[in-house]
Amino acid sequence: MSTPVSSPGKGSHIGRTLTICMHTFTQLVRMKVFYFLAIFAVILIASNFFDLPQHNGPESNGSEVLGLIKSWSLGAMTLFSVVLSVVATALLLPKDVEDRTLYTILAKPVPRINYLAGKLLGVLLLVFVSLALMDLLMTGLLQVRTSMVLSDQLAAARHLGWNEAAIKSLESEILESGPNWSLQGAVLAVFVRSAVMASLALLISTFSSSTIFTTVVSFLMYFIGHFQADAREFYMHGGEAGTTTVAKLVSLLVSMVFPDFQLFNVIDAVIEGQSIPAIAMVKLLAVGVYYALFFTIASWFVFADKEF
Amino acid sequence: MAENVPAVEIRNLVKEFKTSFRRQPLRAVDEVSITIQAGEVYGLIGPNGSGKSTTMKALLGLVAPTSGHCAIFGKDSLKVDSRNDVGFLPENPYFYKHLTGAETLRFYGKLCGLGGKLLDERVNELLALVDLENARDRRIGGYSKGMLQRIGLAQALIQEPRLVILDEPTAGVDPVGSRQIRDLILKLRERGITVFLCSHLLEQVQEVCDHVGIIFRGKMIREGRLEELIAIEDQTEIVLKDCNPELLAKIQALVGESGGASFIRSGKPRTTLERLFLREISEEES
Asked: Quick one: pLDDT at residue A8?
C-alpha cells in the first residue's frame, strides 16, 4: 500500500462538523420532509379565503384577513418547526446506533462533539430553509393581499368623503398589518424556539434509547416551558417559601434548565399588529443561544462517555 | 513512528457491563492480551457472546476498558487520533440508505479529511477494488448483503489505513460473496495492511490468517501462529520429494524396527482449525 493519505490530525473540526451537517440535511430532504410545504401552502390559501364575521365598521374590511394570514402562517410555522426539530433530532441518533452506522463514523477520526454538532446543525439547517420558504410564501401572499386591502379601503374612504389626514392614517394602519420587519422578527423567534427544542431533544436522545421517549419528554419540556415563568413567579412571591435563599436557588436552577418559552409570546404580539422592539429581539436571541448551547454542551458531556 | 511498534496492542483488557437484573456486573472480556505486528492478519475466533466484538469495540474506543489498555500503532485507543490509521467494518452494517455507493465513500472520505480530486480518485479506486463500479450511483438501500459488505470494506479503506478491523465480514453473505471478501482480505495482506478480523467461518480464517486467538467466555484460551496451532504435537512430518514406493517401504520398516515410533500414514498431518476450535472449547467447558 502506498503512504497513507491521511496523516494524524488531518481534517478540521469545522470540516467534519459541516460534512455531518450537510449529510443530515440531505438525509432529511431525501426523507421527503419538504412535502409539508405543500400543506403549508394549502393552509395559507385557506386563510386567504376564510371569511370572518364582520364586527367592526366597513373601514376595517379586509384587515382581519391580513391578521388571519399572519396568525395561521406563524401558527403553522411554529407547529412544523417544533415538530420537525424534535422528531428529526429524536429519530436520527437512535437510528444511527441501531443501524450501526454510528460505529463506522466514530471509528473514523471524528470527535464525538463534531458528530453531535453536525447532527444538530443539519436539523437546524433544514428547519431554517423550511422557515425561509414558508416566510417567502407568507410575505408574498401578505404583500399581494395588503395591496388589495389598501386599494379597496382607500377607495371606500374616498367614496365616503374622508379627509386626507384620515385617509393617511388608514393607509398607515393597513400597511402596519402587512409584511414588515417585526413579522420577520417573529419568524426568527419561531426559528430560535425550534433551535432550543432541537438541542433539548438532542440532550434527551443522548441518554434515551427510544425515539418515542425522546419525543414525549421533549414535548413535555416544551409544555413546562410555557408556564415555568408563571410557576416560578408564584413560588417566589406567593408565600413565605419564596423569600428564602434556597427558594431563590431552586428558582434559578429551574430557569437555567427549563427554557422559558413565554419569552416567545412576542410572536402573538406581532400577529396583533404590534412591533417588536430591537432590544426585545436581542434578548430573545441571547436567551435562545444560551439554552441551545447549554443543552448541546450537556449532550456532549453525556455522549462523550457513552458506550456502544 | 518506530517500525517495531505493534499495529495492535491490547494489554490485560477487562470489560465489565452493569446489568439491570443482576448485582454482579457481567465480565464480557477478562484479562485479554493481544499483540498484532504490522502486516499480519490476525483472526479472533470464539462462540457468540465470547467477547470478540467487545474486544474490537474497546480497541476502537467505542467502549471504555474497565481496566487494561488498548493501543493502535502505539496510540491510546481512547484518543481520537488513533483512528487515523484504522478502518472498521462492523458486523451486519447498514449504511445510509439514501446515499449511493459513491456518495457513501465520499462521506466517509470527507470525515477523514480527504477532499477534491484526491477523494474522487480514491472513491474510483475503491469502487474498482470491491467490484462495485456498476453500482456506484445506485442507492445503498438497493444493495444486496454481499454488496453492503463490500461497500463497507471500501469505506473502511477510504483513508488508506494501516490497520483494518473486520467484525464478521462474511456474516450472512452467500458463498460467492464470501469468497470475494476473502480475496479482498488477501489483497490487503499483499499490500501490507494489518488485518484484525473475527469470524465464525473457521475455514476462511484458516485460509487468510497468520495468527489466531481463541476467545471463550471472555478469556483468551489459546493464541499463536496458525501453523503452530494446527500442527499435531505428537507427530512428526517428513516431507520428501520424489519419494518412490521402495524408499517409503524402507522408511516404514526402519520406523518399525525403532520400537518407540510408529508409521501412521504418508501425507500431510494437519488438523483443521475447526477441530482445534471445538477441542479447545470442549476442554474449557469440561
From this structure: 38
A107/B87 CB distance under 8 A: yes
The pTM assigned to this predicted structure is: 0.83
State how far the Cα of A161 lies from the Cα of A167, in Å rounded to an integer. Answer: 10
Residues 186-225 of B with CB under 8 A from A: 191-193
Q: How far, in Å, are A104, A200, A259 from residue A223 at the CA level?
A: 37, 13, 10
What single string gives the DSSP state of each residue in B149-177? HHHHHHHHTTT--SEEEEESTTTT--HHH
Q: What is the pLDDT of residues A150-209, one digit of tens each?
A: 888 888 888 888 888 888 888 888 888 888 888 899 999 999 999 999 999 999 999 887
Q: Which candidate from A1, A8, A99 shows the least CB-CB separation from B94? A: A99
A142 burial via Cβ count (<10 Å: 0-12, 13-18, 19+):
buried
d(CA B115, CA B216): 43
For A194, the grid coordinates are 425550534
Residue tagged 440535511 (cell numbers): A25
CB-based contact (8 Å) between B264 and chain A? no
A100 closest CB neighbour out of B93, B155, B159: B93
Position of cell 477523514?
A: B112
- State the cell numbers at B75: 496510540
Q: Say how many C-beta atoms besides its own lie within 10 A of residue A121's C-beta.
A: 21
Q: What is the pLDDT of residue A20?
A: 96
> Which residues of chain B have a CB within 8 Å of the CB of A103?
57, 60, 62, 88, 90, 93
When comparing pLDDT for B259 and A28, which is higher?
A28
pLDDT beneath 70, residues of chain A: 1-11, 48-63, 234-243
- B250-257, Cβ contacts within 8 angstroms, sequence gap of 24 or more: none
Among A276, A223, A218, smallest CA distance to A74 is for A276
Q: Which of A200, A218, A187, A219 is nearest to A285 (CA)?
A: A187
Tell me the three state secondary structure of residue A258: coil
Is residue A229 within 8 A of residue A254, CB to CB? The reply is: no
Q: Which residues contact A64 (CB under 8 A, 6 or more apart)?
A: A52, A54
Rounded Cα distance, B286 and B281, in Å: 9
Q: What is the mean pLDDT of chain B?
A: 87
Q: What is the ipTM of this complex?
A: 0.81
Run of H or E residues at B33 = strand B26-36
Residues in A touching B113 (Cβ below 8 Å): 6, 10-12, 15-16, 109
Which residue, A47, A219, A194, A39, is CA-closest to A131? Answer: A194
By the CB < 8 Å criterion, does B16 face chain A? no
